[in-house]
Amino acid sequence: MKKRATSAALAAGTAALAMVMSTGTAHAEDIPGFVNKVKIGSGTRTVYTGHTELDQTELKGCLDNAWIQGHATWTLGNVTATSIVVKSIQVYYRAGVTSYVGEQYLLRGNNKSVWAKAASGDVPGDTHDRSETYAINKTVPLDGKSSISFWSYFSLGRTGGPADCGGISTFTYKLQPVR
Fold first, then answer.
1. Nearest to 134, CA basis, from 77, 88, 174
2. What is the pTM of this model?
3. Cβ contacts of 145 within 8 Å, gap of 6 or more
4. Helix H or strand E encompassing 102
5. What pLDDT is stored for residue 30 in this prediction?
6. CA distances from 23 to 13, 108, 114, 120 (A)
7. 26-49 as b/e: b if 16+ CB within 10 A
8. pLDDT value at position 100?
9. How far apart are CA 169 and CA 167, in angstroms?
10. Distance between CA 55 and CA 52 in Å, rounded?
11. Cα-flanking dihedrals φ and ψ of residue 127, to 5°?
12. φ, ψ dihedrals at 142, nearest 5°
């Protein structure tokens, strides 16, 4: 699943990160990502997201390394119509230019944070996957909404060239219980 970045998406991501950094809570606008439907039931299960991408290579003046991709692997416990037990999430990044992974947030259905992790470091621009596993072990309520979300903030490294592409954005991964 390929997502093309627009200047509006970058502006929304920058505004969202600035808001989170200034307030300490995750109240950012949702940036499109990947939704996984997960069957209601008990027991441990693994859920793999699709790939999502911020690709600026086709924007005027951007170099061919102005891209970053992501995907995630959820490890879940019991899933009900009202909550999901999130044991852990492993987040993967691959980038065309050295980039930086920022804050990570797990949000309940009402978009309030139930778990957060500070910045985690560089993603080398070598096109190999870099991953980090976050142990969460939380029961996350849906609050009457259809899904919970994991927001993974990042900064696409500056590529140089005439447009010096790059900037701050977010990959969003959602879980939606289904019967």
1. 88
2. 0.80
3. 109, 110
4. strand 99-107
5. 42
6. 15, 18, 15, 20
7. bebeebebbebebeeeeeeeebeb
8. 93
9. 7
10. 10
11. 65, 15
12. -85, -15
Are residues 101 and 154 in contact, defined by beta-carbon separation less than 8 angstroms?
yes
As a whole number of Å, the CA-based R_g of the chain is: 16
Q: In the structure encoding, which two tokens stand for residue 91, read together?
A: 């987040």
Question: What type of residue sits at position 116?
Answer: A
In this structure, what token pair is assigned to residue 83? 């909550």
Q: Report pLDDT digits (tens) over 147-170.
A: 999 999 999 998 877 777 888 899
Residues paired with residue 95 on neighbouring β-strands, in sequence order:
68
Instruction: Give the contacts of 19 (CB within 8 A, at least 6 positions apart).
Output: 27, 28
Single-letter amino acid code for the residue at 44:
T
Q: 46-79 pLDDT, tens per residue?
A: 999 988 998 988 888 899 999 999 999 999 999 9
Question: Which contacts of 62-67 are long-range, i.e. CB under 8 A and separated by 24 or more positions?
Answer: 62/159, 62/161, 62/163, 62/165, 63/97, 63/159, 63/160, 63/161, 63/165, 64/96, 65/96, 65/97, 65/125, 65/159, 66/96, 66/97, 66/156, 66/159, 66/165, 66/166, 67/95, 67/96, 67/156
Query: DSSP H helical segments within the chain, as ranges?
Result: 7-23
